[in-house]
Amino acid sequence: MTKAGEDLKAVVREKYALTALGVTDGSGCGCGCGTSGGADPITANLYSHAETAVLPETAVRASLGCGNPTALAELKPGEIVLDLGSGGGIDVLLSARRVGPTGKAYGLDMTDAMLDLARENQRKAEVTNAEFLKGDIESIPLPDASVDVIISNCVINLAADKGKVLREAYRVLKPGGRFAVSDVVVKGDVPADVRRSVELWIGCIAGALEEREYAAQLSAAGFQDVSLEPTRVYRAEVDGKFYSAFVRATKPVA
């Protein structure tokens, strides 16, 4: 990885570690969070009351996502799910409930403080069919063809090498497996200085792909049936150019 990539990863790790510590000690929830309500245009009202009511408050407050992939992915009982960049664990815990006792939900995160918080949230929620792994989404610590569904919530945009993330996602998915993530996407060209300003507003640090590039990189990784569905359009400086999307693709069966 390039030095710029390593530097980006270090900044992301530090930012999310501070968020986890803020949630744990009650001092705050960090940049761009607050899924339980409030005015934040990115994270507000992503989850229903029925979903958050069964989770520890610290799992809800630690959420930094831009969507609700657990609902959009249409998870089925018995499936194995992997959440890339699982943070405080909200999507892993919801996924574990959706796939039931015959299924399993993995969460992958590179930040020790977030992993500690997620495991404590798992204990409080009394969810037994979940496991949190330490690692990098560019090098997933799971075997080939071991996962039915990959979800992620506004994390892939933070990766320095998004192509590698998508190739790794393809590798660990079973044939016929589903890629179903929420992410920030750019529509068309945006001036570099404005793009940087909006990305800082959206999520502290971001590197969102342009929608056509996102689709092209998924196809290059081997995926088919690629689609990007806008779920929330952001109205900051460049009206409608940045949006949350539900990004779908499948790994071919053959």
Which key phrases capture this entry?
254 residues, alpha/beta, Rossmann fold, 8-stranded mixed β-sheet, globular
Structural topology:
Blueprint: H1 3-25, H2 49-52, H3 57-61, H4 69-72, E1 80-84, H5 90-99, E2 104-109, H6 112-125, E3 130-134, E4 147-152, H7 162-172, E5 173-186, H8 192-203, E6 209-210, H9 211-221, E7 224-234, E8 242-250
Parallel strand pairs: 1-2, 1-4, 2-3, 4-5, 5-6
Antiparallel strand pairs: 5-8, 7-8
Helix pairs in contact: 1-6, 7-9
What does this molecule look like?
By secondary structure, this protein is an alpha/beta fold. It has one domain (3-250): Rossmann fold (3-Layer(aba) Sandwich), CATH 3.40.50.150. Helices cover 37% and strands 23% of the residues. The chain has helices at residues 3-25, 49-52, 57-61, 69-72, 90-99, 112-125, 162-172, 192-203, 211-221, and strands at residues 80-84, 104-109, 130-134, 147-152, 173-186, 209-210, 224-234, 242-250. Strands 1, 2, 3, 4, 5, 6, 7 and 8 form an eight-stranded mixed beta sheet that branches. α7 (162-172) crosses α9 (211-221). It is globular, with a radius of gyration of 17 Å. It starts with a helix and ends with a strand.
